[in-house]
Write a structure and sequence with these properties.
single chain, alpha/beta, 5-stranded parallel sheet, 5-stranded antiparallel sheet, 8 helices, 39% helix, elongated, disordered C terminus
Length: 228
């Protein structure tokens, strides 16, 4: 289930939005942009729904900050402002969509699902990138018609990164999601598995696993990605 972060300083609106979206998604909430950043840095977020007018850091600044740091997480801005100039500012900041208040929650749900599909955040079990095919239903990896042998953890890392191309994952996020919160493994374990993955896929020109210094890793697709 996709994880949606709601950023809203009005508690009633925050609770209502969370209640309407919770049947469809896992929901996290933040009261302003600074709190939202802390959550994004600590957890993987599939999509952000954010108010604009907030204390400490408003929605525009939140979007600009995330985009400047390489986060391509889809973002929908919600606001009472309806002027064209306000919408232009929202899109110019780097947001993906803009919805005015009072919110029609059926429309918000449609827009969220559309953005998730567009971002390739889906439940597909098979990903094809050029001559590389990664199939989660059989835990198989094929490159140029030849099997690539990966351990279970290596496969899970590869599938996670490929499912969200260009999205940055911290070592801690990958450690929690792949090894589990209760694991005694360390971030060095993630680094070791990433190194092994790179070695086993060294001949794959379509994909590169990038180290984002001081943050973590992302998968960069060199030739267009398509779902299998």
């Amino acid at each position: 289930m996709a994880v949606i972060l709601i950023v809203e300083d009005d508690k009633n609106t925050q609770l209502l939005t969370a209640a309407r979206l919770r049947p469809h998604f896992d929901i996290l909430c933040a009261n302003d942009g600074l709190e939202a950043l802390d959550i994004v840095y600590d957890k993987h977020i599939d999509l952000i729904v954010s108010d604009i007018m907030m204390p400490d850091m408003d929605g525009y600044e939140l979007v600009k900050r995330l985009r400047s740091e390489g986060y391509e997480t889809p973002i929908i801005l919600l606001t009472a402002k309806q002027a064209f100039e306000d919408k232009r500012d929202g899109f110019d900041s780097g947001s993906d969509d803009y919805l005015t208040k009072p919110v029609n929650y059926d429309e918000l749900l449609l827009r969220i699902n559309a953005l998730l599909r567009r971002a390739k955040i889906a439940t597909d079990r098979r990903i094809a990138v050029g001559s590389l095919t990664v199939d989660a239903s059989t835990y198989s990896v094929i490159y140029n018609h030849e099997a690539v042998t990966l351990s279970k953890k290596e496969f899970d890392l590869l599938f996670k990164l490929l499912s969200y191309p260009n999205v940055i994952f911290t070592k801690n996020q990958l450690l929690d999601e792949i090894w589990g919160f209760d694991s005694e493994s360390t971030e060095d374990t993630v680094k070791t598995h990433i190194s092994r993955l790179r070695g086993k896929l060294s001949g794959c020109d379509e994909l590169e696993i990038i180290t984002v210094k001081g943050i973590g890793y992302k998968a960069e697709i060199k030739k267009g990605i398509k779902d299998g």
